[in-house]
Amino acid sequence: MSLTEKDKATVKTFWDLASKRRDLIGSEALSRMIYVYPQTKTYFSHWKDLSLGSAPIKKHGKVIMAGVGEAIGQIDNLTGGLVGLSELHAFTLRVDPSNFKVLGHCILVVMAMLFPTEFTPEVHVCVDKFLAALTLAISDKYR
Amino acid sequence: MVVWTDQERAAISGIMGGLVYEDDGPKALCRCLIVYPWTQRYFGAFGNLYNAEAIKNNPQIAAHGTKILHGLDRALKNMDSIKETYAELSILHSEKLHVDPDNFKLLADCLTIVIAAKMGSSFNPDIQASWQKFLSVVVSALGRQYH
User: Fold this and answer.
1) What is the pTM of this model?
2) What is the pLDDT of residues A29-66, one digit of tens each?
3) H or E element: which one contains B121?
4) Which residue of A has its CA nearest to B119?
């Protein structure tokens, strides 16, 4: 399921549009992940406020979407380009990789909500493939 | 037995009540066949599925998408006994249709995306949680009779 040149082009074009609302996407996706999949709360026990759209969630949503943006810049070599991020998640954060899928799903839901016309099935498949490739790259250093 | 709060019941029936089965069903099934192309394996007899346009214009796929939502309607009308309501459907999908039950989750996710696109910001996290709980019970019930 590797990214074709067409996939990459589709992802970049959609990101040109979506990145204008990256902060909202980050905050909404993270809020939903924590709310809809309560097991993910275990990674955020150090935050005082886990309510929807709280300050720590907004802040961290931005961090996550900055990572997504960086990944799009490295789309031709995700594993090589995201070594630092992978090491962070593998050795420091130690997030179980199944959670990346769950966050990915929430990102897709928010994209559909915010861009119902542009988030066609053809765009959806490319973005889904990209998020899967991103997940692989972040999980690369785990073992 | 699954316990549903009044809020959850309201959210789920609200969503189902807002769906147009003949439109949203086909949209969800088409999205599934395009985003997860291996699911096309179950539709060999449905004619032209060669590309996204063909899938979207295929009348048999449209009819089947509608049928799926009518099936989901049965779960809505029997929310306190979804397992029992779907026992026969589960056997059908296992023994006659030979559908890998992992596919149910893929279709469920695509339906959620279609609903999110339709409802926009009113598809808030509360409602999403209730809706996904409903779908996970449905998916579990459909997979239950496999052996």
Assistant:
1) 0.91
2) 999 999 999 989 989 989 999 998 899 999 999 999 99
3) none
4) A113
Contact state of A112 with B116 under an 8 Å Cβ cutoff = yes
Among all chains, which residue has been given the structure tokens 């291996």? B38
* Helix/strand/coil (H/E/C) assignment for every residue in chain A: CCCCHHHHHHHHHHHHHHHHHHHHHHHHHHHHHHHHCHHHHHHHCCCCCCCCCCHHHHHHHHHHHHHHHHHHHCCCCHHHHCHHHHHHHHHHHCCCCHHHHHHHHHHHHHHHHHCCCCCCHHHHHHHHHHHHHHHHHHHCCCC
Q: Give the ipTM of the model, two decimals please.
A: 0.84
Cβ separation of A122 and B34 shorter than 8 Å?
yes
CB interface of B with A, residues 21-60, below 8 Å: 30-31, 34-35, 52, 56
